[in-house]
Write a structure and sequence with these properties.
The complex is a heterodimer of chains A (892) and B (105). Chain A is mainly α and 892 residues long. In chain B, helix 1 packs antiparallel against helix 2. The chains are: A mainly alpha (892), B mainly alpha (105). Chain A: It catalyses: ATP + protein L-histidine = ADP + protein N-phospho-L-histidine.
Amino acid sequence: MVSFNILIAVCFAYVAFLFGIAFYADRQAARGRLKFLRSPLVYTLSLSIYCTAWTFYGAVGNAARTGLEFVTIYLGPSLVMVGWWWLLRRLVRIGRAQRITSIADLISSRFGKSNLLGVLVTLLAVVGTTPYIALQLQSVTLSFSVFSRDMSAGFMQVDLASTAFWVAVGLMLFTVLFGTRNLDANERHHGVVTAIAFEAIVKLVALLSVGAFVVWGLADGPADILTRMDASPIADWQIRPGRWAGLIFLSAAAFLCLPRMFQVMVVESADERNLAMAGWAFPLYLMLMSLFVLPIAVMGLELLPKGSNPDLFVLTLPLSQGWDGLALLSFLGGFSSATSMVIVAAIALSTMVSNHIVMPVWVSLRAPGATVSGDLRQVVLTARRVSIMVVVGLGYLYYRISGGGAALASIGLISFVGVSQVLPVMLGGLFWRRATKVAAAAGLITGFAIWLYTLFLPSIGGAGVLSKSVMQDGLFGLSVLRPQALFGTGGLDPVVHAIFWSMFLNSLVFFAVSLFTFPKPLERLQGVQFVNVFEHSQGPRGWTTAGAGAEDLLVMSQRILGAQQAQRLFEAEARAQGKLDHLPDSSPAFLERLERELAGSVGSATAHAMIGQIAEGASVSVQDLMAVADEAAQIMEYSSQLEAKSAELGHTAKQLSEANEKLTRLSVQKDAFLSQISHELRTPMTSIRAFSEILRDMDALTPADQTRYASIIHDETLRLTRLLDDLLDLSVLENGQVALNMEPVNLHDVLNRAVSAALAPQDDVPIRILRNIVQEDVDLISDGDRLSQVFINLISNARKYCTASDPVLEVAIQKQGNDVWIDFTDNGDGIPSHQQPLVFEKFARLTDHARAGGAGLGLAICREIMNNLGGSVAYLPEQGGAAFRVVVPLKS
Amino acid sequence: MDEKPDGKLPEDPLVRGPGSRLFLEWESYRRKRAMDAGNLVPVLGVILFFLPILIASGRESLPVSGAMIYVFAAWCVLIALSVWLSRLLSQPETSDTDGRDDGQL
């Protein structure tokens, strides 16, 4: 008989050995010797955590009760594995491309890195897995009790609860030690995986040994077993089509959706080529695991006393035959199954809890950006460790509360149905681009609710949660809402009923809501990444570079990845970018790579948020682009407004500068005018003074001289008076203060007056004036005196300056619209072109002073007069001689 | 999968790969065939494993031993097919076979 002490010693030795293996594998991995650790064999064996203690012990019990039906939960996973090329390869590729850390991360990442979905899946997984962990604790405890049942020497009564407690503590310790040793960006736990692979071998060897012992030791080989089988109570087995199909489907779904399976299958997967071997080797493993289940059940039923628990045949059968060593091996097999499941489940759940619940809360509580103090890595690790303890603790608590027993045994399938609710969303996300986040959440919640109502709640405590009346008459007394007969489908097995309705309504809601909602840009981006994973080896361009400084990123990454690893990453990137220093440019590609690296440690949603904080939330989504476009439009509008204003300003400035220029010019003109006028006044004054002094002082003057001198003085005063008259006139005209006497006049009369006035005092230089009397007969409303003043000026100018030997002035009249043009053209040399602009200026005398006889104000006055009359006077160049055109309006 | 991004030139190897050619090399052809088979094996598996339901529906009862032999035999057939397939599919891809055929259904 195995003594309790030996059993405990074996247990400890075994656990110590596992620690050793895990430790050794971690060391090898740290040294970079990964070849074996990443081999397809280890990968395949690690998948065996699907076979938990529930399947190890329970399969035989199940076979004893329901015959061949036990095999369905192995057939489903086998189908999934042989179809690796279609589904698993895609899943693993996505997992690697997107650095998926858990199934919650997969769903969250697929639907736009939504943390809501991450939380939902995490909760679902925790609720679904906790009872399962309790089940493992129960199995181990039960197997202990088998050995303690035969109270022989040295055996004390084993307290079941305390056994479960210490097992839970041991598992927590192992998981914390090897599951959270490092925060590997790839989220691989070489130590744990290797230990599990070893446990897989122990499980298989144990079950095969017991099987071989039963078939060849207790019976006479396979043929004999088959005969006994048909003679045993199992032969009454009838295939139940609903359960058969339902359980194959369920186990396939659970195989894909169980957090621990996802952990080893996708997250820990080093290379998708490993799938090629796992694709056949794992079905083979499962087949071997189930090969001897029926024979053991048959022999157990035959040999063991009636009422023995068939769940423990694997142990009790060798024990009853005195094969203690075999029983011990079998015990270790069961122990292995339980421990490996709890360890991986705890790691997977803790990753989900810390990445989707703890970290987002932590990040949102901290100040944004890279300025957070403290080592983030430590925070993540602590979060994981606490999560592991909470998860295993919850399992233990569940075990204590449910009190073990048969109620717990049925929880395996119930748990499967719960976690399988992720399947529609997962497959939809992998193959259907237009699936939306809202739909995924709605589908998950629907499935979860139906699972709770139809399967989970009825399973615990019977009358405890759902009252008898609800069970029999349905919720609110509506018989269509009976938990185990929704819409009157009461004929089904409760599990099949729950599978059908939860999966059907889950999928229905998921697809229906997807059809009526529109995915956000990031969802669509991720959708393409997932659905077309084989076409897009490149990731989405997630980040703009604007705000992200490489230093900030490095500081943040160091907190999460650890200093060494982060620096290595940055250096490698810098080298790849061809930069000499250690800091790479934070290009979109780099940001994206970094986000994935970080996602390996803290989950995609958190990593996205953290990089977002540093890259100033600049995820380039279509939404953002639209916002940017909006902004750009606003800016453009604003800038065009600015432009208009600045044009206006420029215009004003130009006007100002023109005004300024004009003022300056005027000032210069004024100065010139003053100097001119003083000169003009001075010259006659000098003569007047000189001659008046002569008249005063010289006594002996002849009368002729006196007359001559007096007339000079007279002439000069006349000249002065004329000048002053002109100046006054000009000043009045320039100020617009002139009083015009507008009246009907005839141009012919005005010209007559002007010609006679201009030529009257002159006799020296005759000038012929050519006029056209017919043309001149134009009636105007104007100031005749002023107009004639202009004409007089022009005619006397011609007379004075015309250099021709036979001077002729032609006066031509033409009507143009409302104006009359009067051209005065002589046959002289004209005015040189460079002096043309000056002729209308004051004191502008082009030739010598003597001939002018005026102050040079004539044309200036003409111009002012014409301006006042609403017309103009201008010099016409290139007319053969000097030509002036006077434009007079017919009516002012 | 059926939605290849439009507007890209087929010459772009990242988008279409050489799969857009009308005829493939012999090796590629073999490989594509293996991929098709890889997609079909689980279908065959489903049929094999669901067959007992149909068989049982025709009779009073199914002998457990017979059912067990059938199930395990079917299992072995699947495993054998899988071994053969994974040998084909995990052969190193030659340059123009190019594994970018993503196993479309």
